[in-house]
Amino acid sequence: LKVTRIVNEPTAAALAYGIDKSDQEQKIMVFSFGGGTNDTTVMDFGGGVFEVLSTSGDTQTGGADLDKAVMDYVVDEFRSKTGVDLTSDLSAMARVKEASEKAKIELSTILTTDIDLPYVAMKEGQPLNLHLTLNRAKLEQLTRPIVEKIRKPIIQTIKDAKLTPQQLAKIIVFGGQTKMPLVQQFIEDVVGKKPERGLDPMECVALGAAIQGGVLAGEISDIVLLDVTPLSLGVETLGSV
């Protein structure tokens, strides 16, 4: 197996969205928010050439952190009602984790959901059931502080590209967490434009990578991709000058 080229996920997403079909030069921001990380890329397209101007991200913030916020809330609510701490029971916590992620996903399309875990613990020889109703407003309250962490990388990426948010023609988002209304609204608030939502955010990277494969194989000849390193680089001298 020979690795011919590595393409960044945001770059692949831009290819999948067919930005190359545009006749006009435009600046595009691509935002990724997956299970473990988030990335922002600003690129310029014109004359069949994709040029990545800047890219940045947070490798410590992702969907798992949103799941953890919901899990902590569920565990705290169960403890306050029953006096039982589930964190010492690995089996129970695995069930709570699965149910919390499921509830988070459901609340992207509905306003209220129930978390039901029968026989999740024992107290004085009696089984305990966990039942909790979670609504979208509460989910957003729990996860907003985590989502807020992505503001700085987005602003830094636009700054590194020497642009302002007003100069961005389109905003493309992908990754499972971008299905959340909170995340979509947050991106719109930070950048001032609604994100494009034409493709499945779980598939567009693979589609874009396939297009890049077509370029390398010679099947597509009207696209040129100029990429950059995935993190901003700098030089520090002695004394932090």
Automatic annotation (TrEMBL):
GO terms for MF: ATP binding; ATP-dependent protein folding chaperone
Keyword ATP-binding: yes
Short name of one Pfam family: HSP70
Keywords linked to the UniProt accession: ATP-binding, Nucleotide-binding
InterPro entries: ATPase_NBD, Heat_shock_70_CS, HSP70_peptide-bd_sf, Hsp_70_fam
PANTHER family: HEAT SHOCK PROTEIN 70KDA
Full protein name: Molecular chaperone DnaK
